[in-house]
Structure formats: structure tokens, C-alpha cells
From TrEMBL:
InterPro entries: Cupin_8
Biological classification of the source: Eukaryota, Metazoa, Spiralia, Gnathifera, Rotifera
Keyword Signal: yes
Protein name per UniProt: Cupin-like domain-containing protein
Keywords assigned: Signal
Signal peptide: 1-18
Cupin-like domain boundaries: 174-281
């Protein structure tokens, strides 16, 4: 087994198993859980002290739901520009009947996938191993799968048509497949991307916080290199004295079952609990500059509710346990588009975000090609401003000349062809 010592495929969600050890008792697969919880008040103690997250304040209401017939433009105006979560029932097919463990093992068992093993709270070790081995172990051991879905599986996986046209289409970043067993809980976190989260089997309960009036700096937040934020709160045993803020933060809830999807905008704090055998697909999308209007020229009038996932043009695909750009030919416009995607809704592209992108793209290439320009070289070319090397503005990215982009294009082109390049060099 190849042990990956750092986050190659950054887990979108870091999970804590509610079991304490990796004991080999089958996990509790019960799907009948009371959620939102019924609060217990004790005179002498802060509400929800040493209880799970969600016990510190009564839920406000369920997350809004909308119709499967929602037009992409309406979705854009209400939920992307409106910066609100929304649930859709029955948006994708339930895959529990088709995707049994034995089917997955027979059909896809040979594929190498990245799985996460839980060692200590907050720290996961990522391991690359055949899917088959994971399927033999996940009902007993403290591990779960959380990986960009392999290309081979895409034809059987759904992509809601809602996000596969117009302004959304070329902002699809990556589809992440999640498989777990038993009760697991995520950290309290906020992604740097918009996410459409769909449950294909099992059940997931979501807590979504409304922090619009008071950014929760006092929740012990940690920022990851991809911009995601998570809180160090122990979500199973909350210290309600230390995190008093939780008594004042309104929260909303959603329970997703097979076929349901939930849209969560970037930087919305949420926490998730999975129950039973859970298979979910999380589609990450680059946030949109919402000052721009929706362009839906290519959106069909009555599209099927979903299409196979291989119809989506995602920025990233997955090979040998690492991210690769999906496109095989990189033009100047592509390179500019990638930089604008990194920008999200910001007007400045910060250097660390670019460095992380560059590291991921060139992860395999740098080991083979020692003459490669460094991220710093390329950054210096792109920014071309001695006074301010910390960020590049949106307007500069939009107008930067093809000449200036060329160095980046060359590196991206080399990296996407790395496996052809391998053969020709050897
Ligand atoms: C999976 O990884 C192992 C070890 O790196 C390798 O030998 C094997 O060929 C890989 N399998 C596939 C299907 O890529
Ligand atoms: C959406 O709301 C979150 C939480 O209040 C905030 O941090 C984020 O900046 C908002 N995003 C947009 C695009 O307004």
C-alpha cells in the first residue's frame, strides 16, 4: 500500500467516527435517528454541554425546498446570488439497488481509490488501495472513501442537468464520491466552493448555520490550503461553556435520503452526520461573481432531470490517486479561465491559492522534469508588478496578454500530457 502522507486529494469533509477505536464489530447501521434532536435542559448546566453539535440551540426550521422543475436562471437568482441553501427531493436516482457491495467489487474492485483512515481526532491518513479491499473493510473498520470519482464509474453516476448548462457548466470543479458505514460525523466546516450534495444510498443529516450577522471567529477556525475552513469543536462532545456562541447561532436542518440533493453555497458553515451505509456524490463548483447576470444560452427547455456524470466537463479528474486537469489540450483561454476559477467571487487572486493549484497540476511532472519553471517564476510573469506581488486583480487576469500566459500554458500542457510524455521520454 502506498501511504500518502499529506492531503493529495484534499478531503472535502473531515470526519470523525463516533466509534472510539477501530474495533472489528460491525458498525451500527440503524437509519432511525431523531433529528433535529429534542433538547434536554438541566438547571445547573449550559444547554447542550457535552452533547453533540445541534443540542445547544433549537433548530429554526427545515431548509427551503424547491421543485425539480426549477429553471437554472431562477436557481441562480434565488440561491447563488441569494447565497442560500436549498434541498431538492428525488433529483437523482437511488443507487442502493444497483450499487451493492458485491456489484461494486466485481465491476470496480480493481480500481485504486483514496480512502481515509481515522487515526486521531481531526487527523486522517490517506491511503491508496484497491476499491475491493475497502469494500471488505468499511463495514467494520474506521475508514471511509472520499475521493474524486474514477472515470470508469461516471457512466453509472448521475449529474443533475440543473448545473450542467449556462454559467454553471464550465465552473464544475470535481465530483467527489463518498462511501461510509455506520454513524459518522463531519467537523463543523465551510467549503471554499459551492457544493451540490446528493445522497445515493443511506441518510445524511445536515446542520446549517446562519452566521450572516456575526462571523464565528470564536469557533476555533482553521483554514486549509484550498481555502476551506473548519472548526476544532469536538462535534460529539461540545464544550458549551467554551463555545457559548452556539447558543446564539440560528441553525436550519435538512435530512437527505436516497435521491435527494442539497445545495450549499461557499463559506456557509455546516455539519453532517451520515447513518447506515451511505453513498453520496458531492459536486464542487467554483463560486460565481454574482455581479454578473446568468447566461443560460445553452440551457435546454425541458432537460432530463439528470444525465450521466461523464456528460459533465469537470476541471479535475482522478488518475493514479492524484488530480489531473481533464482537458488534454490547453489553450491560452483555458489558462485564463482556470485563473478566473481560482478567483471565485474575490477580486484578488492570492498567491497561496495559485501555488496550491500549481502544486496539484504539476505534482507528477516536477519529479520528472527538473527544468520546469517554478510557481514563483510564473507568478512573477503574471503579476508583473513589483509593488504588489501578493495578489493579482481580476481586471488584470481578464486582460493579461497571451504572451504573458504562455509560460503557464506550456506547463499545464506538459502536465496533462505527462503519461504520454513518460513514454516518449523513456
Ligand atoms: C493500483 O496501484 C498499484 C500499486 O501502485 C499498481 O501496481 C496497480 O497497477 C494499480 N491498479 C490500477 C488498476 O491502476
Ligand atoms: C454567503 O454567506 C456567508 C455566510 O454569511 C458569507 O461568509 C459569504 O461571504 C457569503 N457569500 C456571498 C457570495 O455573498
Amino acid at each position: 500500500m502506498l501511504l500518502l502522507t499529506f492531503l493529495l486529494i484534499q478531503s472535502k469533509i473531515q470526519w470523525i467516527s463516533t466509534d472510539d477505536d477501530g474495533s472489528s464489530f460491525p458498525k451500527d447501521m440503524n437509519l432511525h435517528v431523531t433529528f433535529p434532536p429534542i433538547l434536554e435542559r438541566h438547571e445547573s448546566m449550559a444547554l447542550g454541554h457535552l452533547r453533540p453539535l445541534g443540542w445547544q440551540r433549537r433548530a429554526e426550521s427545515p431548509i427551503l425546498e424547491d421543485s425539480l422543475k426549477i429553471e437554472p436562471a431562477r436557481f441562480y437568482h434565488l440561491f447563488i446570488q441569494g447565497n442560500r441553501s436549498v434541498a431538492f427531493r428525488g433529483m437523482v436516482p437511488a443507487l442502493d439497488v444497483l450499487w451493492t457491495d458485491s456489484y461494486l467489487s466485481k465491476r470496480y474492485g480493481h480500481l485504486n481509490i483514496t480512502i481515509a483512515k481515522r487515526k486521531q481526532r481531526l487527523v486522517d491518513t490517506l491511503v491508496l488501495l484497491p476499491f475491493k479491499i475497502f469494500l471488505e473493510q468499511y463495514r467494520h473498520d474506521d475508514l471511509y472513501m472520499n475521493t474524486i470519482i474514477p472515470d470508469e464509474m461516471k457512466s453509472e453516476t448521475p449529474l443533475p442537468s440543473l448545473i450542467n448548462c449556462g454559467t454553471f457548466r464550465n465552473r464544475l470543479l470535481e465530483p467527489v464520491l463518498w462511501i461510509s458505514a455506520g454513524d459518522t460525523a463531519s467537523l463543523l466546516l465551510a467549503h471554499s466552493t459551492n457544493t451540490l450534495h446528493c445522497v445515493l444510498d443511506g441518510r445524511k443529516d445536515f446542520i446549517i448555520f446562519d452566521v450572516s450577522n456575526q462571523y464565528p471567529n470564536d469557533l476555533d477556525l482553521v483554514r486549509q490550503s484550498n481555502g476551506d475552513l473548519y472548526s476544532r469543536i469536538d462535534v460529539d462532545l461540545v464544550n458549551a461553556y467554551k463555545y457559548k456562541r452556539l447558543h446564539n447561532l440560528p441553525w436550519y436542518w435538512a435530512t437527505l435520503r436516497e435521491g435527494d440533493c442539497l445545495f450549499i453555497p461557499a463559506y456557509i458553515f455546516h455539519q453532517v452526520r451520515a447513518h447506515g451505509r451511505t453513498i453520496a456524490l458531492s459536486i464542487d463548483m467554483s463560486p460565481i461573481d454574482t455581479r454578473e447576470d446568468f447566461n443560460g444560452n445553452d440551457c435546454e427547455k425541458n432537460p432530463p432531470i439528470y444525465v450521466p456524470l461523464n456528460k459533465g466537463k469537470f476541471l479535475w479528474r482522478y488518475e493514479h490517486g492524484t488530480r489531473h486537469l481533464s482537458k488534454q489540450t490547453i489553450t491560452n483561454d483555458d489558462a485564463r479561465h482556470y485563473l478566473l476559477l481560482l478567483l471565485g467571487t474575490n477580486d484578488q487572486l492570492y498567491k497561496d491559492i495559485f501555488l496550491e493549484f500549481f502544486r496539484q497540476v504539476t505534482y507528477e511532472l516536477v519529479k520528472k522534469d527538473t527544468t520546469l519553471p517554478t510557481a514563483d517564476d510564473i507568478w512573477a510573469q503574471l503579476s508583473n508588478d513589483e509593488n504588489n506581488q501578493e495578489y493579482i486583480s481580476r481586471s488584470r487576469l481578464k486582460s493579461v496578454s497571451s504572451n504573458v500566459l504562455q509560460l503557464l500554458v506550456d506547463v499545464l500542457q506538459k502536465s496533462v500530457r505527462i503519461h504520454e510524455y513518460d513514454k516518449s521520454e523513456l
